[in-house]
Specification:
Layout: H1 2-28, H2 35-50, H3 60-83, H4 100-111, H5 121-124, H6 127-157, H7 166-191, E1 202-205, E2 211-214, H8 219-228, H9 249-273, H10 277-304, H11 307-310, H12 329-342, H13 357-369, H14 378-398, E3 403-404, E4 407-408, H15 411-435, H16 439-442, H17 450-464, H18 479-508, H19 525-558
Helix pairs in contact: 1-9, 1-12, 2-7, 3-4, 3-6, 3-18, 4-18, 6-7, 6-8, 6-18, 7-8, 8-9, 9-10, 9-12, 10-12, 10-13, 10-19, 12-13, 13-17, 13-19, 14-19, 15-17, 15-18, 17-18, 17-19
Length: 559
Protein backbone atom coordinates (compact mmCIF):
# COMPACT_ATOMS: atom_id res chain seq x y z
CA UNK A 1 0.00 0.00 0.00
CA UNK A 2 2.87 2.38 0.84
CA UNK A 3 4.55 1.78 -2.52
CA UNK A 4 1.23 2.22 -4.32
CA UNK A 5 0.70 5.63 -2.71
CA UNK A 6 4.14 6.78 -3.84
CA UNK A 7 3.72 5.40 -7.37
CA UNK A 8 0.36 7.14 -7.83
CA UNK A 9 1.83 10.54 -6.91
CA UNK A 10 4.80 10.04 -9.26
CA UNK A 11 2.44 8.91 -12.06
CA UNK A 12 0.29 12.04 -11.64
CA UNK A 13 3.46 14.15 -11.81
CA UNK A 14 4.50 12.47 -15.06
CA UNK A 15 1.10 13.31 -16.55
CA UNK A 16 1.54 16.99 -15.62
CA UNK A 17 5.12 17.51 -16.84
CA UNK A 18 4.39 17.94 -20.56
CA UNK A 19 1.33 20.27 -20.37
CA UNK A 20 2.86 22.46 -17.64
CA UNK A 21 6.23 22.56 -19.40
CA UNK A 22 4.51 23.54 -22.65
CA UNK A 23 2.53 26.27 -20.90
CA UNK A 24 5.66 27.75 -19.33
CA UNK A 25 7.37 27.71 -22.73
CA UNK A 26 4.51 29.64 -24.35
CA UNK A 27 4.56 32.13 -21.45
CA UNK A 28 8.16 33.09 -22.09
CA UNK A 29 8.68 32.33 -25.79
CA UNK A 30 7.84 35.97 -26.64
CA UNK A 31 5.80 34.64 -29.53
CA UNK A 32 2.06 35.40 -29.87
CA UNK A 33 -0.12 32.76 -28.20
CA UNK A 34 -3.55 32.34 -26.61
CA UNK A 35 -2.43 33.40 -23.14
CA UNK A 36 -1.84 36.93 -24.50
CA UNK A 37 -5.59 37.44 -24.85
CA UNK A 38 -6.18 36.41 -21.24
CA UNK A 39 -3.32 38.13 -19.45
CA UNK A 40 -1.95 40.69 -21.93
CA UNK A 41 -4.19 43.55 -20.75
CA UNK A 42 -3.19 43.14 -17.08
CA UNK A 43 0.47 43.02 -18.01
CA UNK A 44 0.29 46.18 -20.10
CA UNK A 45 -1.25 48.04 -17.15
CA UNK A 46 1.58 46.85 -14.90
CA UNK A 47 4.18 47.84 -17.50
CA UNK A 48 2.75 51.38 -17.50
CA UNK A 49 2.70 51.53 -13.71
CA UNK A 50 6.39 50.65 -13.39
CA UNK A 51 7.34 52.81 -16.38
CA UNK A 52 8.54 49.96 -18.58
CA UNK A 53 8.26 51.55 -22.02
CA UNK A 54 10.97 49.59 -23.79
CA UNK A 55 10.97 45.83 -23.34
CA UNK A 56 14.05 45.10 -25.40
CA UNK A 57 16.23 42.11 -24.70
CA UNK A 58 19.05 42.55 -22.16
CA UNK A 59 22.59 41.21 -22.09
CA UNK A 60 23.53 39.02 -19.12
CA UNK A 61 25.03 41.87 -17.07
CA UNK A 62 21.95 44.07 -17.36
CA UNK A 63 19.65 41.13 -16.67
CA UNK A 64 21.55 40.14 -13.52
CA UNK A 65 21.78 43.74 -12.31
CA UNK A 66 18.03 44.27 -12.84
CA UNK A 67 17.21 41.17 -10.80
CA UNK A 68 19.61 42.06 -7.98
CA UNK A 69 18.45 45.70 -7.81
CA UNK A 70 14.80 44.60 -7.63
CA UNK A 71 15.62 42.14 -4.85
CA UNK A 72 17.60 44.75 -2.87
CA UNK A 73 14.67 47.18 -3.00
CA UNK A 74 12.24 44.50 -1.77
CA UNK A 75 14.65 43.42 1.00
CA UNK A 76 14.94 47.00 2.27
CA UNK A 77 11.16 47.48 2.38
CA UNK A 78 10.64 44.12 4.09
CA UNK A 79 13.33 44.78 6.71
CA UNK A 80 11.71 48.10 7.69
CA UNK A 81 8.28 46.45 7.98
CA UNK A 82 9.58 43.67 10.22
CA UNK A 83 11.45 46.09 12.47
CA UNK A 84 8.26 48.14 12.93
CA UNK A 85 5.79 45.24 12.90
CA UNK A 86 4.57 45.85 16.45
CA UNK A 87 3.18 49.28 15.53
CA UNK A 88 1.51 48.17 12.30
CA UNK A 89 -2.12 47.02 11.87
CA UNK A 90 -3.16 43.39 11.45
CA UNK A 91 -1.64 42.31 14.75
CA UNK A 92 -4.43 40.87 16.95
CA UNK A 93 -1.96 38.95 19.15
CA UNK A 94 0.10 42.06 19.92
CA UNK A 95 3.38 40.61 18.57
CA UNK A 96 6.29 43.03 18.92
CA UNK A 97 8.96 44.21 16.48
CA UNK A 98 11.34 41.56 15.19
CA UNK A 99 14.91 41.71 16.57
CA UNK A 100 17.60 43.11 14.24
CA UNK A 101 19.66 39.97 13.51
CA UNK A 102 16.51 37.88 13.13
CA UNK A 103 15.02 40.49 10.77
CA UNK A 104 18.22 40.37 8.71
CA UNK A 105 18.07 36.58 8.53
CA UNK A 106 14.36 36.53 7.72
CA UNK A 107 14.38 39.03 4.85
CA UNK A 108 17.47 37.42 3.29
CA UNK A 109 15.94 33.99 3.76
CA UNK A 110 12.65 34.79 2.05
CA UNK A 111 14.09 36.95 -0.74
CA UNK A 112 16.60 34.22 -1.67
CA UNK A 113 13.73 31.69 -1.84
CA UNK A 114 15.25 29.84 1.12
CA UNK A 115 12.64 30.52 3.83
CA UNK A 116 14.85 29.30 6.63
CA UNK A 117 12.82 30.25 9.71
CA UNK A 118 14.57 31.05 12.97
CA UNK A 119 11.23 32.16 14.42
CA UNK A 120 7.96 30.34 15.06
CA UNK A 121 5.32 31.67 12.69
CA UNK A 122 2.29 31.87 14.95
CA UNK A 123 4.17 33.60 17.79
CA UNK A 124 6.82 35.56 15.88
CA UNK A 125 4.88 37.11 13.01
CA UNK A 126 1.68 39.18 12.90
CA UNK A 127 -1.04 38.67 10.31
CA UNK A 128 0.27 41.78 8.53
CA UNK A 129 3.78 40.30 8.49
CA UNK A 130 2.55 36.96 7.20
CA UNK A 131 0.41 38.47 4.42
CA UNK A 132 2.30 41.59 3.32
CA UNK A 133 5.94 40.76 4.02
CA UNK A 134 6.28 36.98 3.93
CA UNK A 135 3.73 36.17 1.22
CA UNK A 136 4.95 39.07 -0.94
CA UNK A 137 8.53 37.77 -0.82
CA UNK A 138 7.33 34.24 -1.58
CA UNK A 139 5.84 35.49 -4.85
CA UNK A 140 8.73 37.76 -5.84
CA UNK A 141 11.56 35.37 -4.97
CA UNK A 142 9.92 32.56 -6.95
CA UNK A 143 9.34 34.87 -9.92
CA UNK A 144 12.97 36.04 -9.78
CA UNK A 145 14.28 32.46 -9.80
CA UNK A 146 12.02 31.38 -12.65
CA UNK A 147 13.02 34.45 -14.70
CA UNK A 148 16.70 33.54 -14.26
CA UNK A 149 16.07 29.97 -15.44
CA UNK A 150 14.22 31.19 -18.53
CA UNK A 151 16.95 33.70 -19.31
CA UNK A 152 19.53 30.93 -19.04
CA UNK A 153 17.52 28.76 -21.44
CA UNK A 154 17.33 31.57 -23.98
CA UNK A 155 21.05 32.23 -23.72
CA UNK A 156 22.20 28.69 -24.39
CA UNK A 157 19.62 27.88 -27.09
CA UNK A 158 19.29 31.08 -29.15
CA UNK A 159 22.03 33.12 -30.72
CA UNK A 160 22.06 36.91 -30.90
CA UNK A 161 18.70 37.44 -29.20
CA UNK A 162 19.95 38.32 -25.72
CA UNK A 163 18.53 36.83 -22.54
CA UNK A 164 15.19 38.64 -22.60
CA UNK A 165 13.90 41.45 -20.40
CA UNK A 166 13.97 40.73 -16.65
CA UNK A 167 11.07 43.04 -15.77
CA UNK A 168 8.86 41.54 -18.47
CA UNK A 169 9.71 38.01 -17.35
CA UNK A 170 9.21 38.97 -13.69
CA UNK A 171 5.71 40.31 -14.34
CA UNK A 172 4.74 37.40 -16.60
CA UNK A 173 5.76 34.92 -13.93
CA UNK A 174 3.37 36.59 -11.51
CA UNK A 175 0.45 37.29 -13.81
CA UNK A 176 0.40 34.11 -15.90
CA UNK A 177 1.62 31.50 -13.42
CA UNK A 178 1.97 32.12 -9.70
CA UNK A 179 -1.05 34.34 -8.98
CA UNK A 180 -3.65 32.26 -10.89
CA UNK A 181 -2.31 28.94 -9.59
CA UNK A 182 -2.05 30.27 -6.03
CA UNK A 183 -5.67 31.40 -6.18
CA UNK A 184 -6.81 27.95 -7.34
CA UNK A 185 -4.75 26.04 -4.77
CA UNK A 186 -5.88 28.41 -2.00
CA UNK A 187 -9.55 27.73 -2.77
CA UNK A 188 -8.92 23.98 -2.90
CA UNK A 189 -7.13 24.05 0.47
CA UNK A 190 -9.90 26.12 2.04
CA UNK A 191 -12.38 23.52 0.79
CA UNK A 192 -10.25 20.87 2.51
CA UNK A 193 -10.45 22.67 5.88
CA UNK A 194 -7.25 24.76 5.84
CA UNK A 195 -8.06 28.05 7.69
CA UNK A 196 -8.24 31.37 5.86
CA UNK A 197 -9.37 34.06 8.29
CA UNK A 198 -8.38 37.32 9.95
CA UNK A 199 -9.99 36.37 13.25
CA UNK A 200 -7.78 36.62 16.34
CA UNK A 201 -6.91 33.68 18.59
CA UNK A 202 -9.79 31.26 19.21
CA UNK A 203 -10.31 30.42 22.91
CA UNK A 204 -11.48 26.83 23.47
CA UNK A 205 -12.13 24.86 26.62
CA UNK A 206 -9.97 21.78 27.09
CA UNK A 207 -11.08 18.39 28.43
CA UNK A 208 -9.34 19.26 31.70
CA UNK A 209 -11.52 22.32 32.18
CA UNK A 210 -8.86 24.86 31.21
CA UNK A 211 -8.81 27.37 28.36
CA UNK A 212 -6.44 27.13 25.41
CA UNK A 213 -5.76 29.86 22.85
CA UNK A 214 -5.76 28.39 19.32
CA UNK A 215 -3.94 30.51 16.70
CA UNK A 216 -5.66 30.89 13.33
CA UNK A 217 -4.99 33.26 10.43
CA UNK A 218 -4.72 33.50 6.63
CA UNK A 219 -3.09 30.08 6.36
CA UNK A 220 -4.37 28.71 3.02
CA UNK A 221 -3.15 31.70 0.95
CA UNK A 222 0.35 31.34 2.38
CA UNK A 223 0.35 27.55 1.93
CA UNK A 224 -0.45 27.83 -1.77
CA UNK A 225 2.43 30.08 -2.80
CA UNK A 226 4.67 28.48 -0.18
CA UNK A 227 4.60 25.29 -2.24
CA UNK A 228 4.00 26.61 -5.76
CA UNK A 229 6.97 28.95 -5.36
CA UNK A 230 9.10 26.26 -3.64
CA UNK A 231 9.42 28.63 -0.70
CA UNK A 232 8.66 26.44 2.30
CA UNK A 233 8.18 28.92 5.15
CA UNK A 234 5.40 27.81 7.46
CA UNK A 235 2.56 29.85 8.95
CA UNK A 236 3.07 27.73 12.08
CA UNK A 237 6.34 26.69 13.69
CA UNK A 238 5.97 23.02 12.84
CA UNK A 239 5.20 23.87 9.22
CA UNK A 240 3.22 21.32 7.18
CA UNK A 241 3.18 18.88 10.08
CA UNK A 242 0.58 21.21 11.65
CA UNK A 243 -3.02 20.03 11.06
CA UNK A 244 -4.11 23.55 10.09
CA UNK A 245 -1.48 23.73 7.33
CA UNK A 246 -1.81 20.13 6.15
CA UNK A 247 -4.83 18.39 7.65
CA UNK A 248 -5.09 15.19 5.61
CA UNK A 249 -3.30 12.81 3.21
CA UNK A 250 -5.15 14.52 0.33
CA UNK A 251 -3.81 17.98 1.22
CA UNK A 252 -0.40 16.34 1.63
CA UNK A 253 -0.49 15.08 -1.97
CA UNK A 254 -1.70 18.48 -3.23
CA UNK A 255 1.20 20.20 -1.48
CA UNK A 256 3.69 17.67 -2.85
CA UNK A 257 2.48 18.17 -6.42
CA UNK A 258 2.33 21.96 -5.96
CA UNK A 259 6.00 22.21 -5.04
CA UNK A 260 7.19 19.57 -7.50
CA UNK A 261 5.33 20.07 -10.78
CA UNK A 262 6.73 23.36 -12.08
CA UNK A 263 10.32 22.44 -11.22
CA UNK A 264 9.92 19.01 -12.82
CA UNK A 265 8.43 20.60 -15.96
CA UNK A 266 11.32 22.97 -16.64
CA UNK A 267 13.48 20.35 -18.43
CA UNK A 268 10.62 19.88 -20.92
CA UNK A 269 10.37 23.67 -21.28
CA UNK A 270 14.10 23.65 -22.03
CA UNK A 271 13.58 21.00 -24.70
CA UNK A 272 11.03 23.29 -26.37
CA UNK A 273 13.46 26.22 -26.29
CA UNK A 274 16.24 24.02 -27.71
CA UNK A 275 13.84 22.65 -30.35
CA UNK A 276 14.92 19.21 -29.20
CA UNK A 277 12.46 17.57 -26.82
CA UNK A 278 14.77 14.58 -26.38
CA UNK A 279 17.29 16.93 -24.80
CA UNK A 280 14.72 17.98 -22.21
CA UNK A 281 13.61 14.43 -21.48
CA UNK A 282 17.23 13.36 -21.03
CA UNK A 283 17.71 16.00 -18.31
CA UNK A 284 14.41 14.98 -16.71
CA UNK A 285 15.35 11.29 -16.71
CA UNK A 286 18.63 11.98 -14.89
CA UNK A 287 16.84 14.07 -12.28
CA UNK A 288 14.15 11.42 -11.78
CA UNK A 289 16.73 8.63 -11.50
CA UNK A 290 18.55 10.47 -8.72
CA UNK A 291 15.24 11.34 -7.06
CA UNK A 292 14.02 7.73 -6.98
CA UNK A 293 17.35 6.57 -5.53
CA UNK A 294 17.14 9.09 -2.67
CA UNK A 295 13.45 8.34 -2.12
CA UNK A 296 14.20 4.62 -1.76
CA UNK A 297 16.98 5.36 0.73
CA UNK A 298 14.69 7.54 2.84
CA UNK A 299 11.70 5.20 2.71
CA UNK A 300 13.51 1.95 3.49
CA UNK A 301 15.65 3.57 6.21
CA UNK A 302 12.55 4.92 7.97
CA UNK A 303 10.55 1.74 7.38
CA UNK A 304 13.30 -0.33 9.04
CA UNK A 305 12.99 1.76 12.19
CA UNK A 306 15.55 2.70 14.82
CA UNK A 307 17.80 -0.30 15.66
CA UNK A 308 18.08 0.68 19.32
CA UNK A 309 14.30 0.90 19.75
CA UNK A 310 13.83 -2.35 17.83
CA UNK A 311 16.17 -4.12 20.29
CA UNK A 312 13.88 -3.18 23.18
CA UNK A 313 11.21 -5.47 21.83
CA UNK A 314 8.83 -2.62 21.00
CA UNK A 315 6.56 -3.24 18.03
CA UNK A 316 8.22 -1.33 15.18
CA UNK A 317 6.21 -2.74 12.28
CA UNK A 318 5.08 0.81 11.39
CA UNK A 319 8.71 1.92 11.08
CA UNK A 320 10.42 4.84 12.79
CA UNK A 321 7.43 7.03 13.66
CA UNK A 322 9.35 9.42 15.91
CA UNK A 323 8.69 12.98 14.73
CA UNK A 324 6.10 11.87 12.15
CA UNK A 325 2.36 12.36 11.91
CA UNK A 326 0.23 9.19 12.09
CA UNK A 327 -2.13 10.60 9.43
CA UNK A 328 0.73 10.51 6.91
CA UNK A 329 2.72 7.44 7.94
CA UNK A 330 6.11 6.43 6.56
CA UNK A 331 5.23 6.56 2.85
CA UNK A 332 3.86 10.11 2.64
CA UNK A 333 6.44 11.35 5.16
CA UNK A 334 9.33 9.88 3.14
CA UNK A 335 7.91 11.18 -0.15
CA UNK A 336 7.34 14.67 1.26
CA UNK A 337 10.87 14.71 2.74
CA UNK A 338 12.47 13.69 -0.55
CA UNK A 339 10.40 16.09 -2.67
CA UNK A 340 10.86 19.11 -0.39
CA UNK A 341 14.66 18.77 -0.42
CA UNK A 342 14.78 17.84 -4.12
CA UNK A 343 12.66 20.84 -5.10
CA UNK A 344 14.50 23.01 -2.52
CA UNK A 345 11.17 23.93 -0.96
CA UNK A 346 12.04 23.34 2.68
CA UNK A 347 8.55 22.76 4.03
CA UNK A 348 8.29 19.66 6.24
CA UNK A 349 5.48 17.34 7.27
CA UNK A 350 7.74 15.57 9.76
CA UNK A 351 10.73 16.62 11.84
CA UNK A 352 13.90 15.91 9.87
CA UNK A 353 16.00 15.98 13.05
CA UNK A 354 14.27 12.74 14.11
CA UNK A 355 14.96 10.88 10.86
CA UNK A 356 17.18 7.82 11.12
CA UNK A 357 20.82 8.49 10.16
CA UNK A 358 20.42 7.19 6.60
CA UNK A 359 16.96 8.72 6.31
CA UNK A 360 18.52 12.09 7.16
CA UNK A 361 21.47 11.50 4.83
CA UNK A 362 19.20 11.41 1.75
CA UNK A 363 17.78 14.97 2.08
CA UNK A 364 21.26 16.20 3.00
CA UNK A 365 22.73 14.66 -0.15
CA UNK A 366 19.98 16.08 -2.36
CA UNK A 367 20.73 19.59 -1.14
CA UNK A 368 24.48 19.04 -1.49
CA UNK A 369 24.08 18.00 -5.13
CA UNK A 370 21.42 20.72 -5.69
CA UNK A 371 20.47 19.34 -9.10
CA UNK A 372 17.54 17.00 -8.34
CA UNK A 373 14.76 19.13 -9.87
CA UNK A 374 15.60 22.07 -7.58
CA UNK A 375 13.46 25.14 -6.93
CA UNK A 376 12.27 27.59 -9.56
CA UNK A 377 15.05 26.85 -12.03
CA UNK A 378 17.88 26.25 -9.55
CA UNK A 379 18.14 22.50 -10.07
CA UNK A 380 17.72 22.80 -13.84
CA UNK A 381 20.40 25.48 -14.21
CA UNK A 382 22.82 23.51 -12.01
CA UNK A 383 22.14 20.33 -13.96
CA UNK A 384 22.97 22.09 -17.22
CA UNK A 385 26.18 23.29 -15.56
CA UNK A 386 27.10 19.64 -14.91
CA UNK A 387 26.07 18.73 -18.46
CA UNK A 388 28.53 21.29 -19.83
CA UNK A 389 31.18 19.94 -17.47
CA UNK A 390 30.44 16.40 -18.68
CA UNK A 391 30.79 17.49 -22.30
CA UNK A 392 34.08 19.20 -21.46
CA UNK A 393 35.47 16.05 -19.79
CA UNK A 394 34.42 13.88 -22.74
CA UNK A 395 36.03 16.35 -25.13
CA UNK A 396 39.32 16.13 -23.26
CA UNK A 397 39.20 12.33 -23.35
CA UNK A 398 38.85 12.14 -27.14
CA UNK A 399 40.90 15.22 -28.02
CA UNK A 400 37.99 17.15 -29.53
CA UNK A 401 36.81 20.67 -28.76
CA UNK A 402 33.74 20.16 -26.54
CA UNK A 403 30.39 21.41 -27.84
CA UNK A 404 26.99 21.75 -26.20
CA UNK A 405 23.88 22.54 -28.25
CA UNK A 406 26.07 23.49 -31.18
CA UNK A 407 28.31 25.95 -29.31
CA UNK A 408 31.92 25.43 -28.35
CA UNK A 409 32.72 25.21 -24.65
CA UNK A 410 35.93 27.14 -24.00
CA UNK A 411 38.04 28.39 -21.13
CA UNK A 412 35.76 31.29 -20.15
CA UNK A 413 32.74 29.06 -19.64
CA UNK A 414 34.72 26.48 -17.67
CA UNK A 415 36.17 29.10 -15.33
CA UNK A 416 32.71 30.43 -14.55
CA UNK A 417 31.35 26.93 -14.00
CA UNK A 418 34.30 26.16 -11.71
CA UNK A 419 33.40 29.20 -9.60
CA UNK A 420 29.79 28.00 -9.26
CA UNK A 421 30.78 24.40 -8.46
CA UNK A 422 33.44 25.33 -5.88
CA UNK A 423 31.42 28.03 -4.14
CA UNK A 424 28.65 25.64 -3.10
CA UNK A 425 30.79 23.28 -0.96
CA UNK A 426 32.90 26.17 0.35
CA UNK A 427 29.95 28.04 1.87
CA UNK A 428 28.73 24.77 3.43
CA UNK A 429 31.92 23.23 4.80
CA UNK A 430 33.75 26.36 5.96
CA UNK A 431 30.88 27.70 8.15
CA UNK A 432 30.23 24.20 9.50
CA UNK A 433 33.86 24.00 10.64
CA UNK A 434 33.67 27.51 12.15
CA UNK A 435 30.54 26.57 14.13
CA UNK A 436 32.61 23.95 16.00
CA UNK A 437 35.42 26.39 16.74
CA UNK A 438 33.41 28.70 19.00
CA UNK A 439 30.88 28.26 21.79
CA UNK A 440 28.60 30.59 19.80
CA UNK A 441 28.07 27.66 17.49
CA UNK A 442 28.33 24.67 19.83
CA UNK A 443 25.94 26.13 22.41
CA UNK A 444 23.12 25.59 19.89
CA UNK A 445 23.64 21.83 19.56
CA UNK A 446 21.06 19.65 21.30
CA UNK A 447 22.70 16.29 20.57
CA UNK A 448 26.23 15.10 21.32
CA UNK A 449 28.76 13.42 19.07
CA UNK A 450 28.04 12.67 15.41
CA UNK A 451 24.52 14.10 15.33
CA UNK A 452 25.73 17.55 16.36
CA UNK A 453 27.86 17.59 13.19
CA UNK A 454 24.79 16.59 11.18
CA UNK A 455 22.76 19.41 12.76
CA UNK A 456 25.29 22.11 11.84
CA UNK A 457 26.00 20.58 8.43
CA UNK A 458 22.28 20.39 7.61
CA UNK A 459 21.72 24.03 8.64
CA UNK A 460 24.42 25.40 6.34
CA UNK A 461 23.62 22.96 3.51
CA UNK A 462 19.98 24.01 3.63
CA UNK A 463 21.04 27.68 3.59
CA UNK A 464 23.48 27.26 0.69
CA UNK A 465 20.97 25.28 -1.39
CA UNK A 466 18.23 27.86 -0.65
CA UNK A 467 16.11 25.09 0.84
CA UNK A 468 15.22 26.25 4.35
CA UNK A 469 14.40 23.00 6.14
CA UNK A 470 16.40 22.20 9.24
CA UNK A 471 17.37 19.71 11.89
CA UNK A 472 15.28 21.66 14.36
CA UNK A 473 17.02 20.34 17.45
CA UNK A 474 19.42 23.17 16.68
CA UNK A 475 18.77 26.30 18.77
CA UNK A 476 19.41 28.61 15.84
CA UNK A 477 17.81 31.95 16.82
CA UNK A 478 21.05 33.60 17.96
CA UNK A 479 23.13 36.37 16.44
CA UNK A 480 25.79 33.87 15.33
CA UNK A 481 23.38 31.58 13.48
CA UNK A 482 21.21 34.41 12.14
CA UNK A 483 24.15 36.28 10.62
CA UNK A 484 26.17 33.27 9.43
CA UNK A 485 23.25 31.53 7.70
CA UNK A 486 22.10 34.89 6.29
CA UNK A 487 25.46 35.38 4.59
CA UNK A 488 25.50 31.80 3.32
CA UNK A 489 22.03 32.27 1.81
CA UNK A 490 23.16 35.43 0.02
CA UNK A 491 26.27 33.81 -1.42
CA UNK A 492 24.44 30.59 -2.31
CA UNK A 493 21.79 32.46 -4.26
CA UNK A 494 23.54 35.24 -6.10
CA UNK A 495 27.09 34.08 -6.88
CA UNK A 496 25.87 31.04 -8.81
CA UNK A 497 23.19 33.12 -10.55
CA UNK A 498 25.74 35.68 -11.73
CA UNK A 499 28.26 33.03 -12.83
CA UNK A 500 25.74 30.96 -14.76
CA UNK A 501 24.07 33.97 -16.39
CA UNK A 502 27.56 34.92 -17.55
CA UNK A 503 27.91 31.44 -19.08
CA UNK A 504 24.57 31.89 -20.87
CA UNK A 505 25.60 35.35 -22.06
CA UNK A 506 28.88 33.98 -23.41
CA UNK A 507 27.21 31.12 -25.28
CA UNK A 508 24.47 33.40 -26.64
CA UNK A 509 26.91 35.36 -28.81
CA UNK A 510 28.82 32.37 -30.20
CA UNK A 511 28.42 31.11 -33.73
CA UNK A 512 26.65 27.78 -33.96
CA UNK A 513 28.92 24.93 -35.00
CA UNK A 514 27.57 22.69 -37.74
CA UNK A 515 26.68 19.19 -36.57
CA UNK A 516 28.79 16.38 -38.08
CA UNK A 517 29.18 12.63 -37.62
CA UNK A 518 31.83 13.38 -34.99
CA UNK A 519 29.52 15.60 -32.91
CA UNK A 520 29.01 14.19 -29.41
CA UNK A 521 25.28 13.83 -28.85
CA UNK A 522 23.87 15.06 -25.55
CA UNK A 523 20.29 13.81 -25.88
CA UNK A 524 20.73 10.04 -25.60
CA UNK A 525 21.12 7.35 -22.92
CA UNK A 526 24.91 7.42 -23.10
CA UNK A 527 25.06 11.07 -22.13
CA UNK A 528 22.41 10.52 -19.44
CA UNK A 529 24.81 8.02 -17.87
CA UNK A 530 27.75 10.39 -18.23
CA UNK A 531 25.76 13.24 -16.67
CA UNK A 532 24.62 11.09 -13.74
CA UNK A 533 28.18 9.90 -13.18
CA UNK A 534 29.55 13.44 -13.30
CA UNK A 535 27.05 14.67 -10.70
CA UNK A 536 27.69 11.75 -8.34
CA UNK A 537 31.47 11.85 -8.77
CA UNK A 538 31.79 15.57 -8.05
CA UNK A 539 29.35 15.26 -5.16
CA UNK A 540 31.17 12.30 -3.61
CA UNK A 541 34.62 13.87 -3.92
CA UNK A 542 33.34 17.05 -2.30
CA UNK A 543 31.01 15.89 0.46
CA UNK A 544 31.63 12.20 1.22
CA UNK A 545 34.25 12.82 3.97
CA UNK A 546 31.95 15.04 6.03
CA UNK A 547 29.00 12.68 5.51
CA UNK A 548 31.13 9.83 6.86
CA UNK A 549 31.87 11.87 9.99
CA UNK A 550 28.17 12.71 10.49
CA UNK A 551 25.23 10.51 9.43
CA UNK A 552 27.29 7.50 8.30
CA UNK A 553 29.20 7.34 11.61
CA UNK A 554 25.92 7.74 13.51
CA UNK A 555 24.39 4.89 11.51
CA UNK A 556 27.32 2.59 12.22
CA UNK A 557 27.19 3.46 15.92
CA UNK A 558 23.46 2.63 16.16
CA UNK A 559 24.06 -0.71 14.49
Amino acid sequence: MDILQICIVIFVLLLLVKPVGTYVYHMFSNEPNRTDRIFGGVERVLYRIIGLKQRGSMNWKKYALSMIATNIFLVAISYILLRTMGALPGNPSGIGNMEASLSFNTVISFMTNTNLQHYSGESGMSYFGQMIVITMMMFTSAASGLAIAIAFMRGITRRGEGLGNFFEDFIKAHVRLFVPLALIVTLVLVGLKVPQTLEPLRAVQTLGGGVQQIPLGPVASLESIKHLGTNGGGFFGVNSAHPFENPSPLTNVIEILSMWTISASLPYTFGRFARNKKQGWMIFSVMMTLFVAFLCLTYFAEKAGNPLINQLGINSSAGSMEGKEVRFGIAQSALFTTVTTAATTGSVNNMHDTLTPLGGLAPLAEMMLNVVFGGKGVGFVNMIMYAILGVFICGLMVGRTPEFLGRKIEAREMKLIAVAILMHPFIILAPTAISFMTHLGTDAFSNPSYHSLSQSLYEFTSSAANNGSGFEGLADNTVFWNVSTGLVMLLGRYISIIALLAVAGSLAVKQKVAETQGTFRTDNKLFAGILTGTVLLIGALTFLPVLVLGPVAEFLTLN
